[in-house]
């Protein structure tokens, strides 16, 4: 178990972020230091920055801030972060950096299984995540017959989002990078994946033509 409580700190960041937005919505004059609404807003800014500074262990914080490259992180630290999967302001950008680095690592079987479980959890339980394509790209590093079978089972799910995400990871296992890039292409608004983004950003929810997708006519 990781010693750092990622989820606890993620909740603190999200609560501070909500307060920041709520306080700003009431500000009449941001330059009026005597206005209680302005004081509340400025206090919220400081609280949010403090929560964000506490959101990562020091080594990860330095990578998030651009002070250190992800290559200096230990494999265990990166897997702890990916397994915890905290969701808060800009956490997706750090996951992209970490997943790009994990794609280059050699794993023990125990480490490979940790990443496989994390990828399956993302396929099962997430909606619109900007970093999902990076999970697809990291998947070939931990490919196994059992992992592929689990994904093929999920590709038959009753949940359209799960089917789509499983399909894309399977395409990643096949090295279908151009197909993935085309399938993930969206309108110039923020890039997201899954049913949530389909409602907002006209996501091209393209099923990549894997052998199983052809056999089962996944929509």
Distance between the termini: 38 Å
What is the C-alpha radius of gyration, as a whole number of Å?
A: 20 Å
**Fraction of residues in helices?**
55-70%
For the biggest sheet, the summary is:
none
Number of domains: 2
Alpha-beta classification: mainly alpha
**Poorly predicted tracts of residues:** 187-204, 211-219
Shape label: elongated
Number of strands: 0
Strand content: under 5%
What order do the SSEs take from the amino end to the carboxyl end, as H and E? HHHHHHHHHHHH
Count of alpha and pi helical runs? 12
Residue-averaged pLDDT: 85
Oligomeric organization of the protein chains = single chain
Explained architecture:
- The structure is a single chain.
- This protein is mainly α.
- The protein folds into two domains: 1-105, no CATH class; 112-219, no CATH class.
- Helix content is 62%, strand content 0%.
- It has helices spanning 6-26, 36-53, 58-64, 75-84, 91-102, 109-125, 132-138, 145-154, 160-173, 177-183, 195-201, 211-216.
- Helix 1 packs antiparallel against helix 2, helix 4 packs across helix 5 and helix 6 (109-125) packs antiparallel against helix 9.
- The radius of gyration is 20 Å and the shape is elongated.
- It starts with 5 loop residues before the first helix and ends with a helix.
How is this structure best summarized?
62% of the residues lie in helices and 0% in strands. With 219 residues, it is mainly alpha-helical.
